[in-house]
Design a protein that fits this description.
This protein is of the alpha/beta class. The protein folds into two domains: 23-88, no CATH class; 99-182, no CATH class. 31% of the residues lie in helices and 25% in strands. It starts with 9 loop residues before the first strand and ends with a helix. Keywords: GTP-binding, Hydrolase, Nucleotide-binding. GO terms for molecular function: GTP binding; hydrolase activity. It comes from Methylomagnum ishizawai.
């Protein structure tokens, strides 16, 4: 794994994004400790897509070279829990935004989560992970970059399978690299 900015014994990173994008799964596959998950049966239209959903947060840990610990937090995807994004990003150094490409309007979802976290992102970086590309090939990664460019934002956009430890590691490394090298 990449080295984080020097002098931080612990680093907090937050996974956010749309329902079903893979936030809980990503934290589960990369965490070295059993993840803490606050899952509940959905009571709205999410119930048609998945049997459980995050209602407060997910939490996991990952140790980097040199013993530096990453604290990994995942936000709920349901919009009624958006207030948790503002709570969970306090003290975080960066954001991994996961977008479900099979969502009916994934670029709108990207805009939504970037707008939701706009204050946080004024002085902190993000990495965009596009999931479910195997289910929906469009929009393409290039279209995500164009969406970011139209907003005046330039962050890495990567294809990611949240079930793959390697893919999630690449997302984390990309964010740590942006933190380290700007």
């Amino acid at each position: 794994m990449s080295q984080p900015p020097k002098g931080n014994p612990q680093i907090k990173l937050v996974f956010t994004g749309s329902v079903g994008a893979g936030k809980t799964t990503a934290i589960s596959v990369i965490s070295e400790v059993p993840p803490i998950m606050t899952e509940a049966r959905p009571s709205d239209d999410v119930a048609f897509r998945k049997s459980s959903t995050t209602v407060a947060m997910d939490y996991g840990e990952l140790t980097l070279e040199g013993g530096i610990k990453l604290n990994l937090y995942g936000t709920p995807g349901q919009r009624r829990f958006d207030f948790m994004c503002h709570i969970l990003t306090k003290g975080a150094l960066g954001l991994i935004v996961l977008i479900n490409n099979a969502h009916p309007t994934p670029l709108d979802e990207l805009d939504y989560y970037l707008n939701l976290n706009a204050d946080f992102l004024k002085d902190r970086p993000a990495v965009i992970g596009v999931t479910h590309l195997d289910e929906a090939a469009t929009p393409s990664i290039e279209e995500y970059y164009q969406c970011l460019a139209e907003r005046g934002e330039y962050w890495p956009v990567l294809k990611a399978d949240a079930r793959s430890r390697d893919d999630v590691t690449i997302l984390v490394n990309a964010l740590l690299s942006v933190l380290e090298f700007g």
